[in-house]
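Example A, followed by Example B.
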Amino acid sequence: MIIENKTKRLLREGKLALGLALRHSRTVEIAQIASVCGFDWLFIDCEHSAMTVDTAAQLSSASLGFGVTPIVRAPGIEHHHSTRALDNSAQGVVIPHVETAAEARTIAGFTRFPPLGHRSVGGPLAQTNYSNQPLAETMRLVNEETLVIAMIESPAGVEAAESIAAVPGIDVLFIGTNDLCAEMGIPGQFDHARVEEAYAGVIAACRKHGKFVGMGGVYAPALMQKFIAMGVQFILAGSELGFLMVGAKERAGALRALDPKR
């Protein structure tokens, strides 16, 4: 009686789970487009976009029907950002800028139903097809199928990676490489040795505690291949804006080249 979290299954099977970031898309058709294009999850970004909770909920609800996992990045660690997303169709949440085990325990607490946490019960859920089943079973199933993702975006987060990964209820440590490089004083230098060292540390921490590793901000094929070989599975493959601009520029350039008066 619950809709499977495809991304969580892929991670458990040791496979890659590919995500598409949404910052500008506002209509539900993007869920079907993502599915047709081969993406496994949507990164519905409420930190760096102007999306409302309502928009995130509409996108999440649409995703459930196309086998694409709706995952909402909350704008902050405050519990209501995440719980409102989870209560309204999201199958996972990403919490930005996690730097301590204490923060991770707080996150796990408000995103998991009892007895694993203290998430409030808000009524029937889209993730369970609004089924009328015993509440204890609903809470158990939703706990199992929800992905809780802590973003590691600073040297402090990398340093605390093992203690964060040790927290029950946290599924993924997701490295935000852009912010991490900026915090390290090497903005944009994704191939820097310190970045590889940070990835190695987070991956080792996750392996020790049975958690998964995510990667965002890295799009150079050689670097993606390297970090995947190291153990990264949860991959933000790019954004809808990035893909649109690449395709649009290519087409406009090709047509300009055909202009006889150019």
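Example B, a separate protein, is given below in the same form.
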Amino acid sequence: MKLKFALLALVPAMLAACSEAPETATETEAPAPLEVVVPSGDYTLDKRHASLHWSVPHMGLADYVVRMTDIDAQLTLDTENPSNSSITFTVDPQSVAAHLPGDWDAAERGYASWDAEIAEDPKFLAGADGTPITFTSTSVEPTGPSTADVTGDLTFRGMTAPITMQAELTGQLEQHPFGGMPAVGFKATGTLKPTDFGMDLMGGALEDVVNIEFNGEFHGAAPEAEAEGEAEAAAE
């Protein structure tokens, strides 16, 4: 009987313990601010250390990947207020590198190569006249210490539509070991819908999505170049 009463006495205590709110977990600390070592200013893409790939899902099987080999970009970087930064891209539509293996029947296809067909055919890039593909940013929205959403106008095939790229600062050097200039590295990924640009999707063989990935190194002005420019400005 004493044991029974003892157990009954424990029940309220156990219920009270179960009803107590669990200890609040410590809040996740906000990531530390990024220490920026490069100055604000204009930066030019180092084409030797840059790549632009795009891929498109093919028949639900695998992504077909193509590289564009002639790209250029100009970056205006505002380290104090990244939202004021901007970037412009230019891509030669004829600089396609698909690396198609095997034989190619130019007479049957009507193009010298598979690269030329992708670049020039109206159902693809329609770049026979050499009109460049361009991207001009319209807004930069920081999403973290080293990331941002970069929205801009993409123009090709005579059409313009907005796209948003997810950009990441992948590295920075106050002084590049080759040249002494400030340097930054960026990676950017995003998607576009080919139908927004009037592209033929080959009867459904290609999905209505193109994945884009850019990696590039940008260089600012070398200290001696800046000094020369200031001297010339003062002399005028």
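On Example B: Helices lie at 2-19, 106-109, 114-120, 223-235.
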